Amino acid sequence: MERVEIEKSAPQPVLVVGSVGYDDIETPFASDTRILGGSASYACLASSYFAPTRMVAVVGNDFDPKDRQRLSNHGIETAGLQTDESGPTFTWSGKYLEDFNQRETLDIQLNVFESFKPVLPDDQRDSRYVLLGNIHPALQSHVLDQLEAEDTFVAADTIDLWITTERPAFIELLKRIDFLVINDSEAELLTDESNIIKAGAALRALGPKQVVIKKGAHGAYFFYEGGLFALPAYPVTELRDPTGAGDTFLGAVMGYLAAVDRKDVPTLKQALLYGTAVASLTVEAFSCDQLESGGAAMIASRVVELREMISL
Amino acid sequence: MERVEIEKSAPQPVLVVGSVGYDDIETPFASDTRILGGSASYACLASSYFAPTRMVAVVGNDFDPKDRQRLSNHGIETAGLQTDESGPTFTWSGKYLEDFNQRETLDIQLNVFESFKPVLPDDQRDSRYVLLGNIHPALQSHVLDQLEAEDTFVAADTIDLWITTERPAFIELLKRIDFLVINDSEAELLTDESNIIKAGAALRALGPKQVVIKKGAHGAYFFYEGGLFALPAYPVTELRDPTGAGDTFLGAVMGYLAAVDRKDVPTLKQALLYGTAVASLTVEAFSCDQLESGGAAMIASRVVELREMISL
After folding, report:
1. CA–CA separation, A249 and A236 (whole Å)
2. CA-to-CA distance for B154 and B15, rounded, in angstroms?
3. How is chain B split into domains, by residue range?
4. How does pLDDT run across B120-171, given as a tens digit for each residue?
5. Cross-chain residue pair A229–B99, CB shorter than 8 Å
6. pTM for the whole thing?
7. Which of A254, B152, B200, B298 has the most crowded CB, counting CB atoms within 10 A?
8. What span, in angstroms and rounded, lies between the C-alpha atoms of A23 and B29?
9. Residue B229: its chain A contacts at CB < 8 A?
10. Percent of chain B scored above 70 by pLDDT?
11. CA–CA separation, B258 vs B192, rounded Å?
12. Closest by alpha carbon to B38, among B310, B278, B202, B244?
């Protein structure tokens, strides 16, 4: 696996915590069963294009050794990928409707994920770039408790489920993170603001200094101290499977930041372009297939296109 | 009325053809009756912030002389604003629902607009920047037949009604224009492409070299030879009345182009930022009130904000 070439690269490791699972996915164009998925899989595959990436997750007694190998082959450190022999791996089954705007969860089996307690390997507690993928907010906080570095940059993602059912725990988490990435409907659910500009300000007031609100095919807004950046979506013409797009996006963003070891606003803007480019690979093919095979050159050329899309 | 200050300004006149009418508008926040509206009113008020603007439209025997004065006061040349004494002015009555995404037409009375034949005053036939606002496509073509300059830049807007009922006439018009501005649902209706990137390419294949597809609060895409520009929306926090936003946008774009007397791609991109800034004035207040009163300084400062929103 070849890394994306970046000027002034000084790669730090990225720690990613999240889910690894098997998905059954149905779209208007195709369907497949038991494909490698989960927030940590997508985020780690994306991050590893830029920086050494440490995966912290759990799988069950049915996890295919080939899938562990698949992750390792992409340069992912799987020492923190626990195997829980007491049961099978987390599974999710979902269906996308005609326009891909709506996703229906057909079945979800937490399995070993239900009793998952993320434990960081001792030599990963010094991680300075930490991506808290979508898991229970109390577990996201539990990861933060194990970190030892002084200047850790923490990014978090979530889903509407936690905002609805675990709001206090999520609000607590927000006070401890630097960078929140959330979609527009989740932002409205959390802040009760239907205006996205006001929602962004309200989210920043809850803790994270930097907030990205994603708008799907309409791109995203990046809210930071005193400013707003309008990020375009990559102009995808053949949408095939949006599963994992958000995890891919954030994985690549964190990978880029770790690669240059900076987290200032101009660097974050560049990172967001890389996140957008890598996420476009994910949505153009089923599962993480094209994310895995797309390659560094395609990512770099899509970032050039994105830069042109906003250049005057 | 003070013009927006623009470097290298060499203002050419803009000719605008469209409707002038009285609107009754109801929004979740306010309602008002018999307010000055119509595509030509919004477009001319916007354009006149940048360049001398010639209005070609029709009003009826009930048109208030104060409204004509109001247009003149904003620097609009009303020699081409015919008065048809045979009946009353065009009226439109509409209602916006809670989220402003849906608009319901409650009543429409074409009145004198029904028999309107746009006639260009002799001394306006040399216009080199021509905005064909939303009227019957055959009338838009009729305006083009009266033009005499060699290098006229023609922009057109439309609505779904004409795409549905007058498709052949609209397709003919498309072959004669340089710049089409259309919203996303109209683009899909015309091209049968739900993917906006493909729709943009399909529209360019129908004639206009430059195409803008508007996405409301999500900004717009500008398609040109070999490129794509992602235009952000101005971050409006208090949406009050979206009526006339599209007409305002295109009016300001054409005003800017005429002000610098250029129509190359980099100039068009700048023009689109000005269009976005001026349209934001329209939507923040009822009717054309803030469009009229907003002023050159506010427009200039919003363009600076928009540039920052896409700067890396």
Report:
1. 15
2. 10
3. 14-309
4. 999 999 999 999 999 999 999 999 999 999 899 999 999 888 999 999 999 9
5. no
6. 0.93
7. A254
8. 46
9. 309-310
10. 100
11. 33
12. B244
Residues in A 90-129 with any Cβ partner in B closer than 8 A: 99
Q: Which CATH architecture has domain A14-20+41-84+117-309?
A: 3-Layer(aba) Sandwich (3.40)
Is residue A79 within 8 A of residue A122, CB to CB? The reply is no
The ipTM (two decimal places) reads: 0.91
Neighbours of B145 (CB within 10 A): 8
What is the side-by-side order of every strand in the sheet holding A31-37? Answer: A31-37, A21-26, A91-96, A103-109
Closest-CA residue to A270 (of A253, A249, A251): A253
Q: How far apart are CA B162 and CA B169, in angstroms?
A: 9
| B230 at A interface, C-beta within 8 A | yes
**Residue B192 in tokens:** 């049968």
| Angle between helix B245-260 and helix B265-283 axes, rounded to 10 deg | 140
pLDDT of residue B306: 98
Model confidence pLDDT, tens digit, residues A167-194? 999 999 999 999 999 999 999 999 999 9
pLDDT tens track for B72-113: 999 999 999 999 999 999 999 999 887 777 788 888 898 998
List chain B residues with CB under 8 Å of A228: 235, 308-309
* A97/chain B closest Cα distance in angstroms: 14
The tokens for A87 are 């049961």
Which one of 3.10.450.60, 3.40.50.1170, 3.40.30.120, 3.40.1190.20 gives the CATH number of domain B14-309? 3.40.1190.20
Say whether A312 and B307 touch across the interface (CB within 8 A).
yes
Which residue carries 């929103």 as its tokens? B309
For residue A142, the Cα-to-chain-centroid distance in whole angstroms is 18
| Listed residue (A230, A232, A231, A242) closest to A281, CA to CA | A242
d(CA A116, nearest CA chain B) in Å:
39
Res. A295 pLDDT band, cuts 50 70 90 = confident
Going from the C-alpha of B303 to that of each of B23, B116, B296, the distances in angstroms are: 29, 37, 11
**What does the alpha-carbon distance between residue B40 and residue B240 come to, in Å, rounded to a whole number?**
21
Give the N- to C-terminal CA distance of chain A in Å, as an integer.
35
A308 contacts in B (CB within 8 Å)?
Answer: 227-228
DSSP string, chain A: -PPPP-TT--PPPEEEE---EEEEEE-SS-EEEEEEESHHHHHHHHHTTTS-EEEEEEE-TT--HHHHHHHHHTTEE-TTEEE-TTSPPPEEEEEE-TTSS-EEEEEEE-GGGGG------GGGTT-SEEEE-SS-HHHHHHHHHT---SS-EEEE---HHHHHH-HHHHHHHHTT-SEEEEEHHHHHHHH---SHHHHHHHHHHTS-SEEEEE-GGG-EEEEETTEEEEEPPP--S-----TTHHHHHHHHHHHHHHHHT--SHHHHHHHHHHHHHHHHHHHTSSTTHHHHHS-HHHHHHHHHHHHHHT--
pLDDT surpassing 90 at residue B285: no
Nearest Cβ partner for A218 among B194, B198, B218: B218
Secondary structure class of B286 (helix, strand, coil): coil
Contact B230 A198 (CB under 8 A): no
pLDDT, tens digit, 9 for 90 and up, residues A210-254: 999 999 889 999 999 999 999 999 999 988 888 999 999 999 999
The pLDDT, as a whole number, for residue B90 is 94
Among candidates B122, B123, B150, B118, which has minimal Cα distance to B133? B118
